[in-house]
C-alpha cells in the first residue's frame, strides 16, 4: 500500500512547479535571482515544516521564506532603533 497523502517535501515541490510560469515571466536577471532566493528559502526549512505538520502548506512555505529572508538581512537590535 502506498501513501495517500504526499509528504511535505513532495507537496512543496508540486507547489514550486506551479510557480514555474511566474518565474518564466520575470524579465530581469535580478528578478529571477530574487525569485530563486524565495524558492531556496521555502526549501531550506522543509525539515522544520515537516515536523510542525501544519495542514496549511502555504503557511509553512511563507514561514520558511520569511525566516530565510530575515536571516539574510541585517536586523537592527530593537534597543538601538528605539534611541533614534
Describe the structure.
The protein is mainly α and 84 residues long. It has one domain. Helices cover 73% and strands 0% of the residues. It has 6 helices and no strands. The termini are far apart.
Shape: flat
Poorly predicted ranges: none
Q: What structural class do you assign from the helix and strand content? A: mainly alpha
Radius of gyration, Cα only, in angstroms?
Answer: 16 Å
Task: Name its key features.
84 residues, mainly alpha, 0% strand
Give the gist of this structure.
With 84 residues, this protein is mostly helical. Helix content is 73%, strand content 0%. The chain has helices spanning 8-18, 20-25, 29-44, 46-52, 57-72, 78-82.
Task: Please write out the topology.
Elements: H1 8-18, H2 20-25, H3 29-44, H4 46-52, H5 57-72, H6 78-82
Helix pairs in contact: 3-5
Amino acid at each position: 500500500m502506498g501513501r495517500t497523502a504526499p509528504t511535505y517535501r513532495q507537496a512543496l515541490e508540486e507547489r514550486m512547479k506551479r510557480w514555474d510560469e511566474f518565474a518564466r515571466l520575470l524579465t530581469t536577471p535580478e528578478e529571477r535571482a530574487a525569485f530563486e532566493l524565495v524558492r531556496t528559502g521555502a526549501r531550506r526549512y522543509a525539515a522544520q515544516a515537516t515536523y510542525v505538520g501544519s495542514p496549511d502548506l502555504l503557511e509553512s512555505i511563507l514561514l520558511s521564506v520569511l525566516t530565510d529572508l530575515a536571516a539574510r538581512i541585517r536586523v537592527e537590535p530593537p534597543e538601538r532603533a528605539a534611541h533614534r
